[in-house]
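Training component of the fellowship. As part of building independent skills, the fellow (R.M.) carried out the full modelling exercise for a liganded target. The chosen ligand was MU-OXO-diiron. The inputs are recorded below so that the supervisory panel can assess the work.
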Amino acid sequence: WEGGVRPRRLLGFDPVPTSTADEFTVPDGYETQVLIPWGTPIRPGGPAWHKDASDSAADQAEQIGMNHDGMHFFPLGNGREGSRRGLLVLNHEYVDQELLFPDGAEEITAEKVEKALAAHGVSVVEIEQRRGGTWHVVNSRRARRVTGTTPVAFSGPVRADHPALASANEPMGTLNNCSSGATPWGTYLTCEENWNNYFGTEEAGWEPTPAQERYGVSASGGGFRWHEADSRFDLAANPGEINRFGWIVEIDPKDPGAKPVKRTALGRFKHEGCTVTESRGRVVAYSGDDQDGDYIYKFVGQGSWRVQRALGRSPLDHGTLYVARFEDDGSGSWLPLEHGTGALTAENGFADQADVLLRTREAADALGATKMDRPEWIAVNPRNGDVYCTLTNGSGWDSAVHPRTPNPYGHIVRWTEEGGNHAATSFAWDIFVLAGDPAHDPQVELDASNIFGSPDGIAFDGDGRLWIQTDVSNSSQNLAEKGYENIGNNQMLAADPRSGEIRRFLTGPRGSEISGVTFTPDQRTMFVNVQHPGESTTVWGTPTPEDPRVVSNWPDFDPEGRPRSATVVIRRTDGGVIGA
Ligand code: FEO
Ligand code: CA
Ligand code: CA
Ligand code: CA
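Fellow's submitted model of the complex:
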């Protein structure tokens, strides 16, 4: 033990068993409260949600969006007050169009696209804790929705007037906001992930460019079919619009009038998240590109972020973007995506830095970055600076950092930057945990108290507990042929990074994934998101044995209602620190 002192035990709760029930379970001694399900007015007295989904687009723009994902609690006030009142800011990753419209998604109209756009983006709500411990949304001038139509600005090397971004409409909107981040200067970062899914075209003969192909852009799109009703999303009619997506977007939650800003220096890919830390005054932001065979990136800001701010500049506009290379001997390096260096020259087809950033994936290919199994969230241990990244599942790309081929359960990779400096260009890595079920894979060192698969969300709390959330897809969940019959519904676990001990902390309702986690500063309230309960079923109502996998009516259990994504507030009945 460091300094000869045995560290205090980090995990103090009894693990919960796996579950296939349509309920949210927590350990003994904990209590839960459902907060802000999809459709909740962002201000008390706003348009109430209708269980037949008859709310208009204008109503939806004043209500909590769908499919809650990344989230951050910004305290309002200091000390105890800051743990009782704050701004809860959360992403709405995508919409289930079967649930969003009263008549489902067979026909897509302009009106439906408008409502779908309003259900995407980000919500900012002010919440406070009342006597008795429960949390409530309060009226606030800061309450806000950022949607697929909110005016946005661009900054960094790719500006709004770049020819590649030319579009029939003003720059607007953020889409497919998956995980998130928070900056040391108090802003929220929302990350655009599977933005290619919203674009398509019926124009005969349209072909994707190589760059579009590299991002999975196709004429058929990802099933939303918005291009059938709104030419903004038609790849042939409005080709520049799609280049406005794939960015990290900065939102100041305390300034509801400020435009969200797309920070292009951080690159354009399917950003899962954006985890910000500091290194000797410089800002460092880690981000995974969640696709099978894609990469892990980090942005290192130029000079002190405080000085940049004092000069009126964004610390996220000036700096170097790097992509990771993992060597088989446990070492690694960060390769700069800098125009004019290495392979990123005009002779190699990269016109300038803006071009490198617009085609980040191709630039990283040219540098020889290491293909990864779907990099999702990244977390930095506050105790020692180690960095953890979930590789949710994938092909098991041929390299030591992927010990299984294929890799249906995923794992968590960890690295230490050279000299503990997040701005360093080399690191040493190891594997923190291989997920899975030892009944199917003897390499897995987990048991009934902690088997899990497909890790996705991860975050450290202030004490150094690592919280791990899972996203087993509904095409694998609880299925023996996928090796998932013992793992149950998606879940959240807590790990002690020093001992490697892991315990299951909660399980989610049927068909949901657990995504998004944040704490009050005193760590006595935890907020967790339940995304897409009942996904991939149109059978709503009380779960029946006919489809035991995904049928959910959580959290309302109204036979005439429908399942709703929501935030769950978790507290200890004795008011103690969560997880301790
Ligand atoms: Fe939106 Fe990669 O999860
Ligand atoms: Ca995710
Ligand atoms: Ca995922
Ligand atoms: Ca998801």
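The panel noted the following from the submitted structure. Helices lie at 57-60, 97-100, 110-119, 210-214, 305-310, 353-358, 360-367. Residues 9-193+246-250+266-572 form one domain.
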